[in-house]
Write a structure and sequence with these properties.
mainly beta
């Protein structure tokens, strides 16, 4: 009886293995177009098509984009997928084949880049103002006739201790200042109502100050993104970048992530996005360790325009021994009422009022 039980169990096991192999073979027989990792530019049509052996007769095929159903079919006919309004980056496509009450899944992905190369912008310098050379500028914004500036650094490092400042535009004079924790490296800032929200670099802490008194109101844990870099506010939600090509959308009240966009031009991702500013419905960002300022579509992540700021403060004009490798361009502030754009850099002696134009 024991031998019979063992024999029966062996037969059942072999049948199960055979069934599993048959299912595996069927799954392996399915292929899905486009091929994994194929790149497209926004606006190009993506043809999605499930290929399967002739002995498979599907009841239906359901197609999903990033787990959301977008089409169905009864056969292997190609499905056209429009991309002109999609977020850029990696998009996951899944086909679910239904047959006889069972289903098989197969997935692929494609990369979506911007539709075309960024339009090149030129700039003119309209005015030059003094800028405090003790400020390792991480965040910069303009409101109520003054600049608000987040100064980065740790007390035991060359950059110096972090601070939050209110600055007179014309003179560069500090009107109000509060020092940060000497062990914390401050980053981007935004004004939300009567509060100033300040990020930190790697400490995963956010600070909330009273805008008028600079009194610290509270702190919060910032687990959004890899690190805390630049920040801006569009009147509804906050935007934050994190050293990658990702810009996070954050709730203005509790600072939790509510979405994101990935930034691409027509050739690929743009990493190390840094200081951010919202200007007339477009995101402006400088790219860390470069002289580029980008204009980005906040809906898709596409780089629309690019300005090369190399000649703003040429290397040849800088004092001997100035550590330009570290003290790079960083800081974009927009005076919405006066239509003035301010640009500076880390510990730069100048704040520039510039105007962008098409080349």
């Amino acid at each position: 009886m024991k031998k019979l039980s063992i024999l029966s169990l062996s037969v059942i096991t072999l049948l199960a293995i055979a069934c599993n192999n048959k299912h595996s073979d069927n799954t392996q027989a399915l292929t899905l177009s486009p091929e994994m990792g194929k790149t497209y530019n926004s606006g190009q049509q993506v043809n999605v098509q499930l290929h399967y052996p002739s002995d498979i007769k599907p009841d239906s095929i359901v197609y999903q984009l990033d787990s959301v159903r977008f089409a169905s079919a009864k056969d292997s006919s190609a499905i056209s997928l429009k991309t002109d309004t999609m977020h850029l980056g990696s998009r996951l496509v899944t086909a679910k084949l239904y047959q006889g009450g069972k289903s098989q899944d197969i997935s692929t992905n494609f990369m979506l880049y911007a539709a075309k190369a960024p339009e090149e912008l030129k700039f003119t310098v309209e005015k030059v103002f003094p800028h405090d050379t003790t400020s390792y500028t991480e965040g910069l914004l303009y409101q109520d006739g003054a600049l608000y500036e987040s100064d980065g650094g740790r007390a035991n490092e060359d950059a110096g201790r972090s601070s939050l400042r209110k600055v007179d535009v014309k003179t560069g004079r500090i009107l109000k200042k509060v020092d940060g924790d000497p062990k914390v490296f401050s980053e981007g800032i935004s004004i939300v109502g009567d509060k100033i929200v300040q990020l930190t670099y790697t400490e995963k802490i956010g600070y909330v100050y009273d805008k008028n008194s600079f009194k610290l109101l509270n702190t919060f844990t910032n687990n959004v993104g890899v690190e805390g870099w630049g920040m801006c506010y569009d009147g509804t939600k906050l935007y934050m970048d994190d050293s990658t090509n990702r810009i996070w959308l954050m709730d203005k009240n509790n600072y939790h992530a509510i979405g994101y966009i990935d930034v691409y031009d027509n050739k690929g991702p743009i990493n190390e996005l840094n200081e951010l500013e919202m200007i007339d419905g477009k995101l402006y960002a400088n790219v860390y360790m470069s002289n580029d300022i980008l204009v980005i579509d906040p809906k898709t992540g596409a780089v629309l325009q690019r300005a090369d700021m190399t000649s703003l403060w040429p290397l040849a004009d800088r004092p001997a021994g100035f550590p330009s490798d570290d003290r790079v361009l960083n800081g974009i502030a927009w005076d919405a009422k006066g239509k003035r754009l301010f640009i500076t850099g880390k510990k730069w002696p100048h704040l520039y009022q510039v105007k962008f134009e098409k080349k």
